[in-house]
C-alpha cells in the first residue's frame, strides 16, 4: 500500500519536474520566441511584477462577471418560475429557449458592443445573456417537477396560491437553482473575458492582448497563471456554498 | 403521443396538432409582429434593433446566401476537425485515467488546473503560436472540446456498477472483456452526453478563433458586419448560427444517441 502511494507521488513529482525543466530550458526566450521561459514568468509573478495592472484588470472583469450574473440570475429565476407554472407558456416559449441556448452566447459579443459601447456595460450585457439560460432551465424544471400530490393536498386544505408557492414550490427550487447557478458562475467569468478579448477598454482580456501586442509574453503568461488561481478559488467558493445550502435544506 | 385525453374522449388528430404546435407558433408569430410594429411605431433605428422584415430582406439577398454558405462550411469544418481531435483524445485519456490508477493520479491535478482556467483566455496565445487560418481554429476548438470529454468519460466509467464487475470477475472475465462487455456499454450514454458538450464547445472554439484571428467563417462575417454597422445582417448570421447549433446538438446527437443505443444494446 504505502509503496504504491510513494510510487504515485514519485511519478507525479518527477513528471511535473520534467515539465517545468522543459519549460525552463526549451524556449530560447530571445526575440522571435513565442513561449517565455519559466523563470521569466515567475519573475513577472513576483514582487517585481505589474501587480497593480493585473489586479485592476481582474477587478474590472470580476465586477462585469458578477453584475452580469446578478442580472442573469434574477431574470432566469423570474422567467423560470413563470414558464414552470404555466404549461401553455412553457409549450410556447420552450422551443425558443432551447434554440437560443444552442446559439453560442459569445457570438452576441459584437452586437452588445454596438448596443452598449466598449465599456463594462456591453460585457455585463453579454454575461447576463450567457448566464440567463442555465438558471432559467433549471428553475423551470424545478417548478414543473414539484410533486403534484403535495399541491393537491394543500389545495384541499384551502391553501391560497401564494401559500402554495411560498411553502411548497419555492423551497423545492433551492437545489435546482443552485445547480444552474454553478454552471452560470463559470460561464460568467468566461463570457466577461471573451467580451473583453473581442473589444473592450479594460479588463483581463484587454491586458492579455496588450501584453501580447507589446511582446511581453512573460506578463501575459503570468496573467494566465493568475486566472488559473482565480478559477480554482471560484470553484472552491461554489463548493463550500453548495455544502452550506444543502445542509440548510430541510430533510424530507 | 396518444390521441385520447384523460377523460377518455377521443380528440381529432388536428386538434392535437393545434394543441402542441399552437403555443410555439403563436409566440413566434406574435413576437415577430409585435417587434415589427413596435419598432416602426416608435421609429427605433434599424442600427439598434433591425426589423424582422429587414432581417428577412438580408437573408433573401444573393450575396448573403453565397457568403453564409461558405462561412458555415468554414466554421463547421474547423468545428468538426477540432471535435474529432479533442473529443477523441479526451475520451481516450478518460479511459486511460479510469483503467490506470497511476495515470489518474498523475493527470488529475493538470486536468483540474486547466479546467479552472477560463480557456478562452488562451485564444491570443493560440493565435501567436499558430497564426491565422484553419490550423489555429481547429486546434483551439480541439482544446475546448478536450476537457468536457475527459470529465464525462471518467465520471461515466467510474459510476459503472461495481457489483456487475465483481460478478464478471468471479466468473473469470479478463480485463479486456470487463471493459468491452460491461464498462464501456454502460458508460456510453454518459460519454455521448459529454461529447455533445464537447461539440458545442468546439463550435464556440471555432467562432472565438475567428473572432481573435479573423481569416474566414461565421466569426469573421459577424465582425465584418459589425464594423460596417450592418446589424440586420448580424442578426441574420446569428439566426443561421442558431440553426447550426440546433442541428448539431439536437439532430446530430439525437442520431448518435439512437445509433449508440442500437449498437451497445444492453445485454
UniProtKB/TrEMBL annotation, chain B:
InterPro entries: MetI-like, MetI-like_sf. One of its GO terms (biological process) is transmembrane transport. It is found in: Cell membrane. Its main location: membrane. GO terms for cellular component: plasma membrane. CDD domains: TM_PBP2. PROSITE patterns: ABC_TM1. The chain crosses the membrane at residues 20-42, 76-95, 107-132, 138-161, 182-208, 228-247. Residues 68-252 form the ABC transmembrane type-1 domain. It comes from the Bacteria. Keywords: Cell membrane, Membrane, Transmembrane, Transmembrane helix, Transport. It holds the Pfam family BPD_transp_1. It is a multi-pass membrane protein. PANTHER family: ABC TRANSPORTER PERMEASE PROTEIN HI_0355-RELATED, ALKANE SULFONATE ABC TRANSPORTER-RELATED, MEMBRANE SUBUNIT. Belongs to the binding-protein-dependent transport system permease family. This is ABC transporter permease. The lineage of its organism: Bacteria, Bacillati, Actinomycetota, Actinomycetes, Streptosporangiales.
Amino acid at each position: 500500500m504505502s509503496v504504491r502511494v510513494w510510487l504515485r507521488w514519485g511519478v507525479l513529482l518527477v513528471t511535473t519536474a520534467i515539465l517545468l525543466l522543459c519549460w525552463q530550458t526549451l524556449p530560447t526566450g530571445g526575440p522571435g520566441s513565442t513561449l517565455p521561459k519559466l523563470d521569466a514568468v515567475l519573475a513577472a509573478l513576483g514582487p517585481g511584477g505589474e501587480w497593480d495592472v493585473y489586479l485592476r484588470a481582474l477587478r474590472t472583469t470580476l465586477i462585469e462577471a458578477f453584475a452580469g450574473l446578478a442580472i442573469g440570475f434574477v431574470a432566469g429565476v423570474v422567467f423560470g418560475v413563470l414558464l414552470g407554472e404555466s404549461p401553455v407558456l412553457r409549450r410556447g416559449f420552450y422551443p425558443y429557449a432551447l434554440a437560443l441556448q444552442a446559439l453560442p452566447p459569445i457570438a452576441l459579443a459584437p452586437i452588445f458592443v454596438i448596443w452598449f459601447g466598449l465599456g463594462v456595460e456591453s460585457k455585463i450585457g453579454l454575461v447576463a445573456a450567457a448566464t440567463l439560460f442555465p438558471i432559467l432551465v433549471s428553475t423551470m424544471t424545478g417548478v414543473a417537477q414539484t410533486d403534484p400530490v403535495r399541491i393537491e393536498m394543500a389545495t384541499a386544505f384551502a391553501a391560497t396560491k401564494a401559500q402554495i408557492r411560498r411553502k411548497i414550490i419555492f423551497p423545492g427550487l433551492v437545489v435546482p437553482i443552485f445547480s444552474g447557478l454553478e454552471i452560470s458562475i463559470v460561464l460568467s467569468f468566461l463570457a466577461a473575458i471573451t467580451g473583453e478579448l473581442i473589444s473592450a477598454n479594460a479588463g483581463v482580456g484587454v491586458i492579455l492582448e496588450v501584453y501580447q501586442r507589446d511582446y511581453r509574453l512573460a506578463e501575459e503568461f503570468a496573467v494566465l497563471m493568475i486566472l488559473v488561481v482565480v478559477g480554482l478559488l471560484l470553484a472552491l467558493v461554489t463548493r463550500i456554498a453548495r455544502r452550506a445550502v444543502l445542509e440548510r435544506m430541510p430533510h424530507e | 403521443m396518444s390521441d385520447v385525453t384523460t377523460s377518455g374522449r377521443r380528440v381529432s388528430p388536428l386538434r392535437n396538432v393545434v394543441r402542441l404546435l399552437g403555443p410555439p407558433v403563436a409566440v413566434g408569430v406574435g413576437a415577430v409582429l409585435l417587434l415589427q410594429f413596435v419598432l416602426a411605431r416608435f421609429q427605433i433605428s434599424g442600427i439598434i434593433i433591425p426589423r424582422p422584415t429587414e432581417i428577412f430582406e438580408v437573408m433573401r439577398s444573393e450575396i448573403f446566401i453565397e457568403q453564409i454558405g461558405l462561412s458555415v462550411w468554414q466554421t463547421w469544418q474547423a468545428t468538426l476537425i477540432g471535435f474529432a481531435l479533442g473529443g477523441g483524445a479526451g475520451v481516450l485519456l478518460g479511459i486511460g485515467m479510469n483503467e490506470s490508477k497511476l495515470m489518474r493520479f498523475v493527470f488529475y491535478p493538470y486536468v483540474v488546473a486547466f479546467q479552472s482556467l477560463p480557456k478562452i483566455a488562451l485564444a491570443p496565445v493560440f493565435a501567436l503560436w499558430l497564426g491565422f487560418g484553419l490550423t489555429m481554429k481547429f486546434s483551439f476548438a480541439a482544446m475546448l472540446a478536450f476537457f468536457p470529454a475527459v470529465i464525462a468519460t471518467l465520471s461515466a466509467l467510474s459510476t459503472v456498477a461495481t457489483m456487475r464487475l465483481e460478478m464478471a470477475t468471479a466468473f473469470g472475465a479478463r480485463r479486456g472483456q470487463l471493459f468491452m462487455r460491461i464498462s464501456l456499454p454502460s458508460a456510453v450514454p454518459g460519454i455521448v452526453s459529454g461529447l455533445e458538450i464537447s461539440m458545442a464547445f468546439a463550435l464556440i472554439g471555432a467562432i472565438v478563433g475567428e473572432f481573435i484571428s479573423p481569416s474566414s467563417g461565421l466569426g469573421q462575417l459577424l465582425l465584418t458586419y459589425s464594423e460596417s454597422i450592418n446589424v440586420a445582417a448580424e442578426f441574420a448570421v446569428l439566426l443561421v448560427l442558431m440553426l447550426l447549433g440546433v442541428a448539431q446538438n439536437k439532430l446530430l446527437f439525437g442520431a448518435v444517441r439512437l445509433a449508440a443505443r442500437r449498437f451497445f444494446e444492453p445485454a
